[in-house]
Automatic annotation (TrEMBL):
It comes from the Bacteria. It catalyses: beta-D-fructose 1-phosphate + H2O = D-fructose + phosphate; beta-D-fructose 6-phosphate = dihydroxyacetone + D-glyceraldehyde 3-phosphate. It comes from Streptomyces kebangsaanensis. InterPro entries: ARMT-1-like_metal-bd_sf (IPR036075), ARMT1 (IPR039763), ARMT1-like_metal-bd (IPR002791). This is Damage-control phosphatase ARMT1 family protein. Residues 23-368 form the Damage-control phosphatase ARMT1-like metal-binding domain. Pfam families: ARMT1-like_dom. Its cofactor is Mn(2+). The keyword Signal does not apply. Keywords: Hydrolase, Manganese, Metal-binding.
């Protein structure tokens, strides 16, 4: 990326900044919520106390010697960061490691009765079962009479704005207040949807990769979009990339995909048809689910391993959903907002798109007038409030 200006990596050590609030306030709130959601035993409570102490006042500690993924985390920088404050290392790294340690504290990885029990599952299920999800699914009935391109556009926007439904984000009072303050004026700050559709013409054979973000009310519209694209020939195959373990509270895992598809098949009206199509696409291999370890890595996608690079390189289009995936795609830097999206995704091996609502300071690809208008009307809140969104594409 020779023409791209360098920009500072985001750290969490500036009091008053958004990253600092995530480490100092949101992570303790996540520990509290998880503790209250399950009847964990004394050992787990002690481990959660220790994590709370470490992540707010202590330093990053090594993984236990017998941890199954110790080598992987060493390769991802653990040796370099151990012993340093959680606030002084790259924010992305610190957040990712927090979720890794939280799962360990509740016994998610260790053989035993709590192995594989998702500490965020109650919150994810509550959202999937909510009246809002019912309403969103009922709205599909009216779409049935629309011509396929209009239906596709509606489903694309459903998937995009579904990214507002982020359980971790709601734990931040600042984020929720900012969102309320500027409603009801959500707007797209960049819209490359025409380019996106040009990469998915109805007759095109090829593979669509969708790098999913949150479960529940984001994953459901993601799946609806995938079902539509498969049914209308915009993609012959689709690969849904999910997380190999629970992460950032509501990120989707394979279990969440199963819950979402079952929710669709059991729904009344048109939603059930989408569910049945997804079920058969999964069964016959047109839709596959991938849970690559790198999906939970604390590193940007510029550092992805060869197998993933090959896979994305062979896809017709890879769509990255959500804020965190955006940060990892463009690099977790405080870029000047007018930095071209094409420059910061230069490393990516194929056509790539981002569908994201804005929930962190990272932003690229704005035109100068949009940036000026946002700054003038909202100060810095537009970056983190979750009320604006973007569709960016690098063919
Ligand atoms: O679910 P998303 O859209 O990836 O958002 C994750 C959120 O979590 C954060 O990492 C903060 O924890 C923000 O960057 C982002 O707002």
């Amino acid at each position: 990326m020779p023409s791209t200006p360098s920009a500072p990596v985001l750290l969490g050590n500036e009091p008053g900044s958004f990253p600092h609030s995530v480490l100092a306030e949101r992570h303790p709130a996540v520990i509290r919520q998880v503790r209250e959601a399950f009847p964990y035993g004394p050992e787990q409570h002690r481990a959660l106390d220790a994590l709370l102490d470490s992540c707010t006042k202590g330093v990053i500690e090594e993984l236990p010697a017998d941890a199954h993924d110790r080598d992987r985390w060493q390769a991802w920088g653990l040796g370099q960061y151990a012993g340093r404050s959680w606030f002084d290392v790259p924010w992305l790294w610190s957040e990712s490691y927090f979720y890794r340690r939280l799962l360990e504290a509740v016994g998610y990885f260790a053989p035993g009765p709590w192995q594989g029990i998702d500490p965020f599952r109650p919150f994810k299920l509550a959202e999937l079962d909510s009246p809002e999800t019912d309403e969103e699914l009922a709205a599909l009935d009216a779409l049935e009479s629309e011509p396929p391109p209009r239906r596709a556009a509606a489903l694309l926007h459903g998937s995009l704005w579904g990214n507002r439904a982020d359980l971790g984000f709601r734990l931040s009072a600042a984020g929720a207040q900012a969102a309320r303050a500027t409603q009801p004026a959500p707007g797209l700050v960049a819209d490359d949807s025409e380019t996106l559709w040009s990469l998915l013409p109805p007759s095109r054979a090829g593979t669509l990769c969708l790098v999913a973000d949150n479960a529940g009310r984001e994953l459901v519209p993601d799946l609806l979009l995938v079902a539509h694209l498969l049914a209308h020939g915009s993609a012959e195959r689709a690969v849904l990339h999910v997380k190999p373990y629970p992460y950032y509270v509501s990120d989707a895992t394979t279990a969440d995909v199963v819950d979402a598809v079952r929710r669709l098949t059991a729904a009344p009206g048109a939603a059930a048809g989408y569910g049945r199509r997804l079920w058969s696409a999964l069964t016959d291999g047109r839709l596959t689910v991938r849970a690559h370890p790198f999906s939970c890595s604390p590193l940007p996608y510029a550092a992805m391993p060869g197998d993933l690079r090959e896979e994305f390189g062979a896809a017709t289009l890879t769509v990255f959903k959500g804020d965190l995936n955006y940060r990892r795609l463009v690099g977790d830097h405080l870029w000047p907002p007018t930095t071209p999206f094409a420059d910061v995704t230069d490393h990516f091996p194929g056509p790539v798109a981002a569908l994201r609502t804005l929930k962190s300071d990272v932003i690229t690809g704005l035109d100068a007038s949009t940036e000026a208008a946002l700054d003038a009307t909202e100060g810095g809140h537009w970056r983190v409030g979750g009320v604006h969104a973007l569709i960016q594409v690098r063919p």
